[in-house]
């Protein structure tokens, strides 16, 4: 199905929409003719995002939402469905990164990343599913990561949330297929977004995206093409898909790659500890 045909006049909710992949997906949806409800907790960035999308003013709505608050997520989705008349697509995109040695992880680190990355998705599904069932269909799109397909070292907290999202999404994809409710999970690798340089969990930061990182706009095009085709797992870009395929075929084939990554990150943390 053509992307524009899939999304034209459809009601879409996108969380984490003020920047990065969330903003790029929202913009691509609007360009395809959708009605989009932008949701984010950063009110200043949200206002800026809405202004940047002002050319679509009649089809774009911005809502300040803390995705760790179940009542706010419920209200967002109920109001969006009420205002548009139905809820066609929910993009559970909000999330944070986290790279640190497991020995430095506090219970507060665990609570924060679970609340933002996993519970927000659960809240979104819990609110959206009854609506989609009543209207006879819909599509839930959850953002995970390559870290939900391949165990990236020094990201145990992040991996935990993203593996959970992949498992949740794939389980629901089969369970809900006969009801016309589709479920996809997006698993990006390196995408150039503002998340780089922000140590959201722990103190590890890579100031610049990797050299092979793709623009968020390119990621959004791949995501919407995958959603339009009702793909279950949408892994991107191509190096991410290749790594995942190799890991599925034989985990030993990528073992040296992951061990090298672990060694590089261990050196970074050790040098940081020595400097302090």
CATH topology: Rossmann fold
Tell the overall outline.
globular
CATH class division: Alpha Beta
> Largest sheet, described in full?
7 strands, parallel
Radius of gyration: 18 Å
Helix content: 40-55%
Number of strands: 9
CATH superfamily label: NAD(P)-binding Rossmann-like Domain
Give, in spatial order, the strands making up the sheet with the most strands. Answer: 3-2-1-4-5-6-9
Q: Please tally the helical runs, counting DSSP H or I stretches of 4 or more residues.
A: 9
Overall pLDDT confidence: 93
Q: What is the structural class?
A: alpha/beta
CATH A-level architecture: 3-Layer(aba) Sandwich
Strand content: 15-25%
Number of domains: 1
Terminal CA distance reads 56 Å
Could you characterize the architecture of this molecule?
This protein is of the alpha/beta class. The protein has a single domain, classed as 3-Layer(aba) Sandwich (Rossmann fold). Helix content is 50%, strand content 15%. The chain is built from nine helices and nine strands. It has a seven-stranded parallel sheet with strand order 3-2-1-4-5-6-9, sandwiched between helices. The protein has a two-stranded parallel ribbon with strand order 7-8. α4 (70-84) runs parallel beside α5.
